């Protein structure tokens, strides 16, 4: 019995030591991994045109050589310009490994969370759970992920909330989003065991204010609005639960919904003059590039807001803030 007790204490200690958290500091991050949909995907020379950095459902596998020689194509995204992961990392084109902050972007345009829960948009589509299993199988061992220098970003749910808007078989959306989140966070957990201990989650933006759903007074826009708010509140709850269950992780939730809302509500101050229509052209005075995707300028603002958030969330910043407050208190 005594032996068992000692073993148990040692085991607890070992767990506690191995669970020691590497402090998050945005300035130290060199490897930025992304999983998500068209709002986040970048085009790769080895990818499916208009959909991915690398591979598709018919072509899941790739070699280390293909991955490492794969180049990001400049301004080739869903918004006809650079997008938020590119602005945030300043990795806009070429080999990710040549960027000071490497962008490894496995988002796939049109992705939902799980092929077992919602149908694929196309037979070649890759959903989030598949993005992660594909990454773990073909990329994880090849790409760098030094602790403290690595983080993952997750932005998913835009297509899920849109695709289910008129799905009559879903009678309880709390239940449905919980089921989707179980699948979502199962994928995060799988990535967590291999990848970074820092995970950034973005909330679903107000696509009820996109040209496909306007006017805002329409029933579909209002239903989508309430579905998105519910999705986001369950996302926050699940992210909190994930952080509690993984004490070695740093979990950050960025409210992209709030950023979009702030810009849309004050659009002229941000240099936009049209937030209801769209222009599939090179005109950043439009908020929307097409019926469902924002323009490059929106991505640039989003990245700037995110960078501020990541710096504020960095350990050195918190320490300086605490020291400053301590000094002020004296
Ligand atoms: C599969 O994808 C790789 C890049 O990942 C590409 O080189 C190859 O041509 C693709 N094959 C087919 C059949 O699409
Ligand atoms: C989901 O993704 C597809 C492919 O990118 C896009 O065409 C579609 O408009 C998206 N749906 C929503 C609701 O955003
Ligand atoms: C995928 O879908 C396209 C059109 O929707 C079809 O032409 C093609 O045969 C399908 N491919 C396979 C392998 O099922
Ligand atoms: C509607 O949702 C159910 C899940 O409850 C899913 O199985 C089904 O494929 C969805 N239908 C469409 C058209 O997306
Ligand atoms: C919907 O599902 C949730 C979670 O399972 C449950 O708490 C709630 O009572 C359900 N709502 C209705 C109207 O059945
Ligand atoms: C916004 O753009 C659309 C499409 O070009 C146009 O029809 C609409 O009149 C514009 N709205 C405003 C307020 O300028």
TrEMBL record:
Report a single Gene Ontology molecular function: hydrolase activity, acting on ester bonds
Where does the secretion signal sit in this chain? 1-19
Q: What is this protein called?
A: Carbohydrate esterase family 16 protein
Organism for this UniProt entry? Heliocybe sulcata
Which keywords has UniProt assigned to this entry?
Hydrolase, Signal
């Amino acid at each position: 019995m005594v032996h068992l007790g000692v073993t148990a204490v040692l085991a607890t200690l070992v767990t506690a030591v191995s669970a020691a958290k590497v402090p998050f500091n945005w300035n130290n991050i060199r490897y930025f991994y992304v999983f998500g949909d068209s709002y986040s995907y970048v085009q790769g020379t080895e990818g499916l045109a208009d959909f991915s950095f690398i591979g598709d459902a018919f072509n899941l596998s790739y070699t280390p050589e293909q991955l490492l020689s794969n180049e990001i194509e400049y301004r080739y995204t869903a918004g006809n310009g650079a997008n938020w992961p590119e602005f945030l990392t300043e990795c806009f084109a070429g080999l990710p490994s040549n960027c000071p902050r490497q962008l490894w972007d496995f988002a796939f345009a049109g992705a939902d969370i799980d092929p077992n829960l919602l149908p694929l948009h196309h037979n070649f589509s890759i959903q989030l759970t598949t993005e992660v299993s594909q990454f773990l199988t073909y990329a994880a061992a090849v790409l760098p992920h030094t602790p403290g220098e690595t983080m993952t970003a997750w932005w998913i749910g835009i297509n899920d909330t849109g695709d289910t808007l008129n799905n009559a078989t879903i009678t309880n959306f709390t239940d449905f989003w919980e089921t989707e989140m179980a699948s979502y966070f199962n994928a995060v957990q799988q990535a967590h065991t291999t990848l970074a201990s820092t995970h950034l989650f973005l909330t679903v933006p107000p696509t009820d204010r996109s040209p496909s759903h306007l006017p805002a007074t329409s029933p579909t826009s209002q239903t989508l609005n309430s579905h998105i708010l519910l999705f986001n509140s369950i996302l926050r709850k699940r992210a909190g639960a994930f952080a509690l269950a993984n004490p070695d992780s740093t979990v950050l939730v960025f409210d992209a919904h709030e950023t979009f809302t702030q810009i849309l509500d004050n659009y002229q101050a941000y240099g936009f003059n049209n937030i209801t229509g769209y222009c599939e052209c090179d005109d950043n005075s439009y908020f929307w590039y097409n019926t469902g995707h924002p323009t490059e300028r929106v991505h640039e603002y989003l990245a700037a807001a995110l960078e501020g958030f990541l710096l504020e969330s960095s350990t050195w910043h918190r320490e300086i803030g605490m020291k400053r407050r301590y000094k002020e208190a004296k």
